[in-house]
Amino acid sequence: MSKVATTLDELRDQPDHELRQALARTRDELFRLHLATHTNQVTSTAALLGKRREIARILTILRARELGTETQGQKTQAQRAKSSKTPQAKS
Fold first, then answer.
1. What are the structural domains, with CATH classification, of the chain?
2. pLDDT class for 89, splitting at 50, 70, 90?
């Protein structure tokens, strides 16, 4: 599994209040990166892109929960259901 997929699974397993805290923390980190950019302290501008994408992921999950298309841990539960339905070997 890729790093992004692992991150998404971790985010989807968190309750709403933890996601909102993660959103606030990530927005603060992005703000600090922007400040550091203006003072020429950031060595990698890719960090800005990564933070913006992380914010977008969190907002997408929160919005999907508002609309009712996703619940907490839904993807993880689906994977567990798939693994429990593995075909049994014939003898």
1. 3-71 (1.10.287)
2. low
Integer Cα distance of 34 and 41 in angstroms: 10
The DSSP secondary-structure symbol of 43 reads: S
Q: 12 and 73 in contact (C-beta within 8 Å)?
A: yes
Whether the per-residue pLDDT at 75 is higher than 70: the answer is no
Length of the chain: 91
Name the amino acid, one letter, at 56. Answer: A
Backbone φ, ψ for residue 21 (5° rounding): -65, -40
Of all helices (H) and strands (E), which one includes residue 60?
helix 46-67
